[in-house]
Please model this.
Amino acid sequence: MLISGAGVAGPLLAYWLGRYGLRPTVVERAPALRDGGYKVDVRGKAIEVLKRTGVYETAHAKDTGMRQVTYVTATGGKVAALDADLLMGRRGDDIEVMRGDLVRILHDAAAPATEFIYGDAIASISPDGDVVFESGRSRRFDVIVGADGLHSATRRMAGLDAPLRHLGAYLSICTVPNDLRLDHEEVFWAAPGRMVFLYSTGPDDPAKAGMIFASPELPRASVTRELVASRFAGDGWQVPRLLETILGDAAPKSILNDGAATAAAPTPLGGRQRSTGEASGDDFFVDSLSQVDIPRWSAGRVVLLGDAAFCPSPASGQGTSTALCGAYVLARALARHETPARAFAEYEDTMRPYTDRNIALGRKMAGQMVPGGRVSIAMRNYAMRTLRLNPWHRQIIASVNKPIFEAANAIELPAEATPVAA
Ligand SMILES: Cc1cc2nc3c(=O)[nH]c(=O)nc-3n(C[C@H](O)[C@H](O)[C@H](O)COP(=O)(O)OP(=O)(O)OC[C@H]3O[C@@H](n4cnc5c(N)ncnc54)[C@H](O)[C@@H]3O)c2cc1C
Model:
């Protein structure tokens, strides 16, 4: 079996196929594991997947340990500070980890039974499973899995593509100096149609700066760091310094999250890779807040997984979790059925209600992620200030976040499979 993409879903699928006695191949376009990035939540049933995989404790040890979320005014005055887990809808064993740490953990779990090929990609797939790689090599596979992310090339090659659902905003993120000496704290700043979030895991660690701006869909080539800078030009607080970092680097200027821009200058998030200890804008990433919501996830020998099949968008905070559950369910189906068609049908039947729920959550959350006008920001600030003083604020926030909890748990994970060959 061939898996395209060594992100979250690809390595986990490889791990489980290995556990079922198969030896999959993973091809990753980037020349090395893309283990940089931003923090991601893993919630609900995806935690059970990590436990069954035997990596929960390792992942838990990498929890970012964020303590506090602070809202500030346009000029940086403190509005309110709230408990981070509570506000972000994490409950029980849920964790928040750097995506790169998770990718590394999953890769290491899969490595003993997996062939990893870096710096290559699928160029074409025949109906019989003959795959030609961009390097010119060719091989035959019984099943080809597209776990190659939001802008999946496999999806296009399999004829499963449909326009992404644009959620009305763009999101950029990059490493920046931790000028505020944030210590396990995240700070949110808002202006009409714009939002900045800034966080760090320690006062001596670099920070990550996320910048979100409302926009109709734009041609991909026009979505550059200069565009992001132009949308925040003239803003106050830390914004001028962030823009200085983003623009101060000589890296390629148009960088999106499909690995494509990495061919010449490879990186975890589309820019040139540096260790996380360095504070720089050169891991800059920008992409639309979009969803993948397509009627079919498979065609012939090809099946899609993770963001390639059912991206709920970063607004949902559920893309990692749905990718993890999908990989577990797909591996189980492939181990149980002799024909790909049956395995794909079982996988899709099990996953659809869960992914539909999370895609719906992403649409809803996207509307709340990008601030409206001054009045709605003022109302939100007022609500945050008074909420903090309300003795029931934990219950109120938990009830507002109930849809996240429900979406994160909207699947009954089937028991591990007995492989057909056993
Ligand atoms: C800023 C931000 C914050 C987020 N926060 C959260 C969160 O809190 N919680 C959450 O659950 N999710 C979050 N997400 C979403 C989450 O990162 C994704 O949903 C998740 O990584 C999807 O996993 P995946 O394996 O499907 O795809 P990815 O992790 O994107 O991996 C795809 C892999 O395929 C490779 N690739 C691309 N094209 C090719 C090709 N042609 N050939 C071979 N390889 C290719 C890429 O290099 C990459 O390694 C966030 C995303 C962003 C951008």
Notes: The mean pLDDT is 90. DSSP finds 14 helices and 18 strands in the chain. The pocket of flavin-adenine dinucleotide is lined by residues 4-10, 27-30, 34, 38, 40-41, 99, 121, 147-149, 153, 171, 173, 210, 258-259, 306-308, 314, 317-321, 323 (CB under 6 Å). The first strand starts at residue 2 and ends at 4.
